[in-house]
TrEMBL record:
Signal peptide: none annotated. GO terms for molecular function: DNA binding. Residues 29-48 bind DNA. It comes from Asanoa ferruginea. This is TetR family transcriptional regulator. Residues 6-66 form the HTH tetR-type domain. Pfam families: TetR_C_13, TetR_N. Keywords: DNA-binding, Transcription, Transcription regulation.
Amino acid sequence: MARQKEFDPDVALDRAMTLFWEQGYAKTSMQELVARMGIHKRSMYDTFGDKRALYLKALDRYAETVEQVNVAAAERQTDGRAALRGLFESALPGGGQQPLGCLSVNTATELALRDPDAAARVEKSFARQQQLVLDLIRRGQETGQIAAHHDPRGLALTLFNAWVGLRVRVRTGAPRAQLRQMVDDMMTMLD
């Protein structure tokens, strides 16, 4: 008879995801993981595999969660231009919170060159996020809120990469006023 788990795997995975997001893959120890997750080491291995497997699962969870939040926020907005601003501003840290940036972007800079599985997950997440930017640009062009003379694909690529850069600057602790200026400048590209 199989033993019932004494912990919620989803809660444990979310806790691991947050720790990896805060510290990165290399700086997160197994001891820190089991302490944050509130489980025994054996349970962690039995449920999630080794540290790398846990990281990849956490990265998948992050991408899925962020995508759902971003798509839901974009769907609530009929104005494509306003939805883009909201998307870009969602990267800005709130009052007093640690500037974590984006786990996908953090993974791209930390692991993508040496871990093909992590790189593939980052690319998949980036492709979905860039598609959302493209969809919002097209929506804005259809309603006249974004200049029609722009090639939507080219503009989406440019804005997406500016958004990635914004998230890197969030992680490095750039001043909020500077981050807001970056968003304002990104929005001028829509004129």
